[in-house]
Write a structure and sequence with these properties.
- The complex is a heterodimer of chains A (409) and B (617).
- With 409 residues, chain A is α/β, with parallel strands linked by helices.
- In chain A, 39% of the residues lie in helices and 20% in strands.
- Chain A has 15 helices and 16 strands.
- In chain A, strands 9-10-8-7-6-5-4-1-11 form a 9-stranded mixed beta sheet, sandwiched between helices. Chain A has a 3-stranded antiparallel beta sheet with strand order 12-13-14, with no helix packed on it. A two-stranded parallel ribbon of chain A has the order 2-3.
- Chain A starts with 29 loop residues before the first strand and ends with a helix.
- Chain B is 26% helix and 32% strand.
- Chain B has 15 helices and 31 strands.
- Chain B starts with 18 loop residues before the first strand and ends with a helix.
- The chains are: A alpha/beta (409), B alpha+beta (617).
- Chains A and B meet through helix 8, helix 9, strand 12, helix 11 and helix 15 of A and helix 13 of B.
Chain lengths: 409, 617
């Protein structure tokens, strides 16, 4: 979640949504995102909305956070009902951050429990939490499993100490296999997050990180190119010349290596930056984002989407807690998408998926662009002949350019 | 010291004996406008509280650049020894491109204030205008300005001026336009030293047009100096070069706001309004006479403005073409020197080939189009007019490289200029080196003072239109100044260099150069484009060629990554907005074949930024 909120329209204080969100709601999955805005340290590359424990006080403190989040869960349930949406049990829940596991497992369990009390949960629902290898124990993982969590995503990032140092990650690489084993023992599916293209990381460093991660046999891997966001410590270090800058060609080579090694280990890509061992092990919560399903985002700065309305909460935990203390919606702004904009988003998001896009759903310009995309090796020819726009490896690396070519001017 | 005049002489009834017509000859930055402002203030025509710095320079661009493009005339009263005089200050354009307009302004005066910065000394263009003034037999009052500056060297430059125009260094006045010091003495001296205008009040009216300006509300405002006879409101007048007749709707003087009068008599300077809408009907240098009682002979010195430099102007957004067309039409109303015709470029779309008096004229015109008409423009590299004779004796005039004939060429002639460069003598070597590298032939060199020289070269115009002046400035640490005038043509060994992107010729980058410089141009342009054009989804070769012979090549590697790694719930809105921005950006791309070339690349490739950057280093 980027730290800068978009510009949008004002959002009503009761959280009510416009009537259009009801259309087709029964066909859309409903999910919950819970943002935990705390970290033990602030990483140099991170521009997410997160705070170290000592930064916040009052209702925004780590101790009080679960109660505050639960009050938004209740507000959400009221608002959705009052907006005329049908009751829908949760299909996916995702706790992200920050570092969710900095909160006691009991707090995470309490928030999840409150959500299940309000909406219920589908059988076989996916419930994920992100976790830092430093902040879990066998006991805490077992407790999460008992509370209904099914999946844990560890922020491994790299197996190379000098890379972790540039990223300000505090864990020691050797802890990762241990926590993966604990999660398995607790009965949780395991995903590992990796970052490539960190300043100073060689191709061999990256190969080592990939091979190490794969040796733990995760069910799922996410591999992200490092994005240097304005205003981060890393951006300042690069600007001063303390660490080398980012090179897109280096990123491309590392992405190709990642795809090669991860595929060889038996995981398949299903989104530009995500690979799963089986289709069932793909992150269904993230797929919901890309397929335009509904979700409510709990927490400061969290984004939500219901039926073509996107909104986002106030960013600062203190402001967030203050709103909820007065039973006022914490939404800072929202946008109501028209049909054309929803179509742009659909194309932009679905193009990134292995399932691709139906070519017939594109505009005339998009359909005409397909031949050129095949010629440039960006789109798979046999799939296109069967009516699907499916990115090749080269096309995945140029996905944004492909999207610009298939969207109408 | 004289007081402000108690009673101002009345226009139309002013004895020529109490009229003084003068102009100020000065280089850009030497403080002409500030001095003029101070005169307006001291003579009381502008109240101090209404004073807007540089009152006479009306256009924003002029004020920002500190230069005067369009002259105007202001009538100011001044009293000396009990007599009230009418002083007409005729503001002259200060730049080399406007030599003809300067010459007409000078022809309207009996005297000139030669204004020189006491810290910098005289510059080449001032010297050129001084020659013009002396050729017109004007009485010169030498003045050093900015004497309040710590760096001022009044003794040195007074000696330089005295040496140039004759006389004693002690006679050189010292003023400060900024503080007002010496300005009243100067006004007195103008009255004392300058001759009164002489003319025949009973002869048929003859008035010389020294400027004409288009005004949205009033149509063309024509500035004239009456030589013989008298002009009255409501009478029919005739332009002697075009024979066009108009009714004089209004006649008056500027002081400095337009003030209608009962007419203008011998020696007077003022404005005419006839209701015409196009400055071409009121040409600078033309003679105005009375239709009922026409003069037999027009005043001498009239000439048509001749464009010397040509450039293609294209709207960045093709849909702005009609806006550009209308804007040029409107600018033409106010700029008799501007010529243009529609032109099509494969790379740039629809635009116009526009002829200018010189580079500054080009830059100012482009800036006005962008600012006043809210246009984003690409201007192609400036070209001169070549005369190409084919083997079948057919003659083609080429102002655009893409029109260069493909058939067998027997001979190419290019326009030449004689250039005068003034600089401290320590830079002589560097200047000679620069001029030789531009195919110049030295004409001579003179010392203006102990350490300042005047160097004369004959050069191809094409060699000085692109970056010559910038380089001259950098090689002389800013001290060098340049003036030039047309000086015939010569046969030269010229070739056309084409630039190709992915095998597609980009006409906007073609150039006509001397054969010896073709390779350097090719290397420069292909190198520049490699830096300027972003990587595409495929490799893009860039080549320079003479005909089918490749003389330089570069290549832009294909881009390998263009994808945002993370796109989750909170990223979608931001990502979509970025995409919309990128789509907008794509619209600003020009397609050359399949290659997307940003407008900025065209602009950067076609401008002389590089030489400016070098100057900074």
């Amino acid at each position: 979640m980027p730290s800068v909120l978009p510009l949008g329209d004002p959002a009503p204080s009761n959280g009510l949504l416009p009537p259009q969100v009801v259309d087709g709601a029964a066909d859309r999955a409903f999910g919950l995102y819970v943002h935990i805005p705390f970290c033990a340290v602030r990483c140099g590359y991170c521009d997410f909305n997160t705070y170290t424990a000592t930064e916040l006080g009052g209702g925004a403190s780590q101790d009080a956070y679960a109660s505050t989040a639960v009050s938004e869960v209740k507000l959400a349930a009221r608002a959705l009902k009052a907006s005329g949406l049908p009751p829908r049990p949760l299909r996916t829940v995702f706790f992200g951050g920050g570092t969710p596991t900095l909160l006691p497992a009991e707090d995470l369990a309490r928030i999840l429990g409150a959500a299940i009390d309000e909406w219920g949960i589908e059988p076989g629902a996916e419930v994920t939490t992100e976790a830092n290898p430093d902040s879990v124990t066998p006991e805490s993982l077992a407790l999460l499993k008992d509370a209904g969590f099914t999946r844990v995503s560890f922020g491994m990032q790299s197996a190379v100490p000098h890379v972790l140092k540039v990223l300000d990650r505090t864990h020691t690489p050797s802890r990762v296999p241990q926590v993966v084993q604990w999660a398995r023992d607790a009965g949780l599916a395991v995903s590992l997050d990796l970052i490539y293209g960190t300043p100073g990381e060689s191709l061999d460093d990256w190969r080592y990180s990939l091979e190490t991660a794969l040796s733990y046999e995760p069910d799922h891997i996410s591999a992200y190119a490092l994005i240097v966001e304005d205003g981060t410590k890393l951006a300042a270090q690069i600007r001063r010349g303390d660490v080398p800058g980012i090179d897109d060609d280096d990123h491309a080579a590392k992405y190709e290596l990642a795809d090669q090694l991860i595929s060889a280990a038996g995981l398949d890509w299903y989104e530009v930056s995500n690979w799963a061992r089986t289709p069932e092990q793909a992150c269904r919560h993230n797929l919901a984002y890309w397929r335009g399903d509904d979700w409510w985002g709990i927490g400061p700065g969290a984004h939500s989407h219901v039926g073509g309305v996107r909104w986002w909460n106030v960013k600062h935990p203190t402001a967030y807690a203050g709103r909820l203390a007065q039973a006022v919606s914490p939404a800072a702004g929202r946008e109501t998408l028209d049909a054309e904009t929803r179509n742009v988003e659909r194309i932009m998001l679905e193009a990134r998926l292995v399932s691709g896009l139906g070519i017939e759903s594109l505009g005339e310009q998009g359909r005409h662009a397909v031949a050129g995309l095949i010629a440039d090796g960006l789109v798979d020819a046999p799939a296109a002949f069967h009516g699907r726009l499916h990115l090749t490896l080269k096309g995945r690396l140029l996905a944004d350019a492909v999207v610009r070519r298939i969207l109408p001017d | 010291m004289s007081p402000m005049a108690r009673t101002a002489p009345v226009p139309a009834a002013t004895d020529p004996a109490i009229i003084r017509n003068f102009c100020i000859i000065a280089h850009i930055d030497h403080g002409k406008s500030t001095l003029a402002d101070r005169m307006l203030q001291f003579t009381g025509v502008v109240q101090s509280r209404d004073m807007k710095a540089q009152y006479l320079d009306r256009m924003d661009i002029e004020r920002e650049r500190g230069i005067t493009i369009k002259s105007q005339a202001v009538r100011m009263p001044w009293e000396l020894d009990g007599t009230s005089y009418a002083l007409n200050m005729i503001d002259t354009p200060g730049h080399v491109d406007f030599t003809y307009e300067v010459s007409r302004s000078l022809a309207a005066c009996e005297g000139a204030v030669l204004l020189v910065d006491a810290a910098q000394g005289i510059e080449a263009q001032t010297l050129a205008n001084l020659y013009l003034a002396m050729e017109n037999n004007l009485t010169i009052i030498p003045v050093l300005n900015k004497i309040d500056l710590p760096a001022a060297q009044p003794e040195k430059y007074a000696a330089e001026l005295a040496n140039l125009i004759g006389g004693d260094p002690d006679d050189v006045l010292r003023v400060s336009g900024k503080t007002g010091a010496g300005v009243e003495v100067l006004l007195d001296k103008i009255v004392r030293d300058l001759p009164a205008p002489v003319g025949n009040p009973d002869a048929p009216a003859r008035a010389m047009i020294f400027d004409s300006v288009y005004d949205t509300y009033r149509g063309v405002v024509t500035y004239v100096r009456v030589v013989d006879g008298m002009l009255h409101p409501r009478e029919k007048i005739q332009m002697m070069s075009t024979r066009a007749t108009h009714e004089l709707l209004e006649i008056g003087v500027s002081s400095p706001e337009p003030t209608p009068s009962k007419g203008l008599g011998v020696g007077e300077v003022g404005y005419l309004i006839t209701g015409v809408k196009d400055v071409r009907q009121s040409k600078v240098g033309d003679t105005v006479t009375n239709l009922a009682k026409p003069a037999a002979q027009s005043l001498s010195g009239y000439a048509d403005a001749k464009p010397m430099v040509f450039s293609g102007l294209y709207p960045l957004d093709g849909t702005d073409y009609p806006v550009l067309r209308d804007a040029l039409e409107k600018l033409m109303l106010n700029d008799a020197a501007l010529v243009y015709e529609p032109e099509t470029s494969a790379a740039l779309g629809f635009g116009f080939r526009v002829g200018f008096l010189g580079l500054l004229h080009l830059e100012i015109t482009r800036e006005r189009l962008e600012r006043e008409y809210n246009l984003d423009l690409i201007s192609t590299a400036p070209n001169v007019e070549y005369e190409v004779t084919l083997e079948d004796k057919k003659v083609v005039h080429v102002t655009n490289p893409s029109e260069y004939p493909t058939g067998k060429v027997a001979e190419v002639r290019e326009p030449m200029v004689s250039a005068t460069i003034l600089a401290p003598n320590e830079f002589v070597g560097a200047i000679m080196e620069l001029c030789q590298s531009r195919r110049g032939v030295m004409g001579g060199m003179d010392y203006l003072s102990e350490d300042r020289v005047e160097i004369r070269y004959r050069l191809p115009l094409a060699e000085i239109v692109f970056d010559f002046f910038d380089i001259l400035k950098s090689k002389t640490r800013g001290y060098g100044s340049l003036d030039w005038k047309a000086d015939g043509d010569q046969v030269a060994d010229l070739v056309k260099v084409d630039i190709m992107l992915q095998g597609e010729q980009v006409d906007a980058f073609s150039a006509i150069t001397h054969r010896d410089k073709a390779y350097a141009y090719g290397v420069m342009m292909t190198g520049k484009l490699r830096e300027l054009i972003p990587r595409q989804q495929f490799e893009v070769p860039i080549q320079a060629a003479i005909g089918s012979r490749i003389i330089a090549r570069e290549s832009i590697r294909a881009i390998r990554k263009d994808v945002l790694a993370k796109c989750y719930g909170g990223d979608i809105t931001r990502k979509r907005k970025l995409l919309e921005k990128q789509k907008e950006g794509k619209k600003r791309m020009k397609m050359v074949g399949r290659v997307e070339v940003p407008q900025e690349a065209f602009i950067a490739a076609l401008t002389t930024d590089e030489s400016k950057d070098k100057a900074k280093k």
